[in-house]
From TrEMBL:
PANTHER family: ENDO-1,4-BETA-XYLANASE, PUTATIVE (AFU_ORTHOLOGUE AFUA_2G04480)-RELATED. This is Discoidin domain-containing protein. CDD domains: FN3, GH43-like. It comes from the Bacteria. Residues 553-638 form the Fibronectin type-III domain. It comes from Flavobacterium magnesitis. InterPro entries: FA58C (IPR000421), FN3_dom (IPR003961), FN3_sf (IPR036116), Galactose-bd-like_sf (IPR008979), Glyco_hydro_43 (IPR006710), Glyco_hydro_beta-prop_sf (IPR023296), Glycosyl_Hydrlase_43_Enz (IPR052176), Ig-like_fold (IPR013783). The keyword Acyltransferase does not apply.
Length: 638
């Protein structure tokens, strides 16, 4: 019997022919060092997104989600707060995020701090979640990593939903809040000690007694309306999957207040028109006082990402890193198991010489260089590593069967949608975060293998896990993934490149930057441990250089304005065989083409996000595994 086992083991080793000599006991290989800090990151941000509470929003399925992020600096480190995370994250470098358990949940099914606000006030970190009920304390801590918080006030009588806190240079403290399809955002100066709105408290008597949201969000006393929507003029503020639901069934939503002060100006940021749509974006109005009046910035939305793997950029905040570079955070959608199934993204941002606030999302779901010094973000911070895995053939160990799924998307009548979902290998490389492959089990040994078609230079990979048949609800501290990645030139002789067999960290969007590039054609991932549910991956993304020719410039590029509705244009171009996708740039002047739209394969784009009465400029470029083409001549659209 022992002889038989020995023969079987020998045959197994010969059949797989894995080379493991480059590995040591700590998981380090010639190309991967788990202890070496990354120089890049990739959206969605790779944090341990919490699982929703059981039956959250009346949906039985287990799924991860978070949204509405706030990143602030405190004592030289970065702190990330977001919706319902049973705590928060901190990082030294904006890449390696560590979780601190700090729940404020009172009952098992409660939201645990939806759309929270955080700000450093008088050298202390302040924190508050969303509520219309006037039942939340205002919390504070001088030591956030301890997970312990004190109550600055026991009950904040000022209601706050999607709140933001801002302390001006004169030490005055302001609170902004609101989320509505009908009403604007509001703001007010508050007393630091009591957290009550400034002014005669008798003027707020109706507010303190109000029970309906529409009454609670109205201005009373010294509360001011600060920002509202004008979808009739601003196309991107319209509700709908493509800004196409008029009239909006629940109104055009405004939410996600945030204040940034730059060069004496106050930039009042907001999110619109709704979190479940690809056009979810951040806009900004500008004023000379924290409570306005504010004027709509001509360049809007200021952060916008309606295409690519990561879709959506609304409801976040703007912060400066330790080198003085600005970043804009936002919410991106999955919206399958729940229309509020979401993730978090972060993009380079800034202010140009004319004081225009912008965020650069071009190639914003490809690797982005982390900051190490002061730099100009007008051209972004791309690593230059291209996507190598798009639509490449994949083989897998097994695949789940197709099934009818209630997606919790909504149609134009507001009804839920049922769809047939399949979990085939082709979903691993389709650049669609809403689809995924699933193995039949969660067992060790399940695998996936990608054929890049030829040898390419590989610099980084991103493994985006999917929550298929997960059983976890709410936060647990034993959630982690383990796997190994092998590479080969011939699919016969394999080299171990990435060893995460000892990983104990929750990495649902695991981004791995190699310590040095490697050339290979085949990539194989072998599952060792899956966090919850079956071994399932939305997209297995590979970045680097294809080592061949960049695409030619795009031909036939036209922007056709809709004469009956100048908020809409139809953009067309000729599809070309040497490109996998196209990036459209537009802006309010030829030197301010800050916004972009990524399109895969297609040769048209129905764009409904322009403002009436504004002159725009457009251009386009093609991209493939090898690089990016030259941009086309800029087109003026009046």
């Amino acid at each position: 019997m022992k002889k038989t086992y020995s023969i079987l083991l020998l045959l197994l080793l010969i059949g797989f022919n894995f080379k493991t000599s480059a590995q040591n006991e700590h998981g380090k290989t010639e190309w991967f060092d788990p202890n070496k800090p990354a120089t890049t990151y990739c959206n969605p941000i790779n944090i341990g997104y919490n699982y929703t509470t059981e039956n959250h929003n009346g949906i039985l399925e287990s799924r991860r989600s978070s949204a509405d992020p706030v990143i602030i600096t405190f004592k030289g480190e970065y702190y990330l707060f977001a919706t319902n995370q049973a705590g928060f994250f901190w990082s030294k470098d904006m890449s390696d995020w560590k979780f601190v358990y700090g729940s404020f949940q009172r009952r098992p099914a409660d939201d645990d701090q939806c759309a929270p606000a955080a700000w450093v006030v008088n050298d202390t970190l302040f924190y508050v979640g969303s509520t219309w009920k006037r039942d939340h304390p205002i919390w504070k801590t001088a030591d956030p990593k301890s997970g312990r918080w004190l109550r600055h006030v026991d009950i904040a009588l000022l209601p706050t939903w999607d709140p933001a806190i801002f302390q001006d240079d004169d030490k005055k403290v302001y609170v902004y809040y609101g989320s509505s399809g009908k009403l604007p955002l509001v703001g007010v100066e508050v007393d630091y000690k009591t957290w009550l709105p400034k002014g005669n408290q008798a003027d707020y008597a109706k507010l303190y007694k109000a029970t309906e949201v529409e009454d609670i969000q109205r201005p009373y006393g010294e509360i001011k309306e600060v920002v509202g929507l004008d979808p009739a003029s601003h196309g991107w503020e319209r509700f709908g999957a493509n800004n196409d639901m008029e009239p909006a069934p629940w109104g055009n939503f405004i939410e996600g207040a945030w204040m940034t002060k730059h060069n004496g100006k106050y930039y009042m940021q907001y999110g619109a028109p709704a979190t479940e749509f690809k056009g979810y974006a951040n806009g900004v109005h500008v004023g000379d006082h924290p409570l306005g009046p504010f004027t709509y910035q001509k360049h809007n939305p200021m952060s916008y990402k309606p295409g690519g793997f990561v879709i959506g950029a609304g409801h976040g905040n703007t912060f400066a890193d330790n080198y003085g570079n600005y970043w804009n955070t936002g919410t991106c959608k999955i919206s399958i198991k729940d229309r509020f199934e979401r993730r978090i993204d972060m993009f380079p941002a800034g202010f140009d010489e004319d004081g225009i606030m912008y965020s650069n999302t071009s190639y914003g779901d490809f690797p982005i260089v982390l900051p190490t010094q002061k730099r100009n973000h007008e051209k972004g911070a791309s690593s230059g590593w291209m996507l190598l895995s798009y639509k490449k053939p994949v083989t897998v160990s097994s695949s789940e069967d197709c099934m009818e799924v209630q997606t919790h998307r909504v149609d134009n009548g507001g009804k839920k949608v049922y769809e047939k979902f399949c979990y085939g290998a082709e979903n691993l490389t389709d650049e669609n975060i809403q689809t995924y492959w699933s193995a039949k089990t969660r067992n060790p040994g399940e695998w996936l293998q990608i054929d890049l078609g030829r040898k390419m230079e590989i610099n980084a990979l991103q493994i985006n896990y999917a929550d298929h048949k997960a059983t976890q609800y709410n936060k647990a501290m034993d959630i982690y993934y383990q796997y190994k990645i092998f590479m080969s030139d011939d699919a016969q002789n394999w080299t171990l490149v990435i060893d995460k067999s000892k990983n104990d960290k929750d990495v649902p969007h695991d981004y791995v930057e190699l310590t040095k590039s490697i050339e290979a054609r085949y990539i194989k991932m072998e599952n060792i441990h899956n966090a919850s549910g079956l071994f399932a991956v939305s997209d297995f993304r590979v970045f680097g250089n294809g080592l061949m020719e960049k695409p030619k410039p795009v031909s036939g590029f036209k922007v056709n304005k809709n004469t009956s509705d100048t908020r809409n244009v139809m953009i067309v171009w000729k599809k070309q065989a040497d490109a996998i996708g196209y990036t459209i740039y537009y802006g309010i002047s030829p030197d301010k083409l800050y916004n972009s739209i990524m399109v895969y394969e297609d040769s048209t784009y129905d764009f409904r996000g322009l403002d009436k009465g504004t002159k725009y400029y457009f251009t386009i470029e093609a991209f493939n595994e090898n690089g990016i083409s030259a941009k086309n001549k800029i087109i003026e659209v009046k």
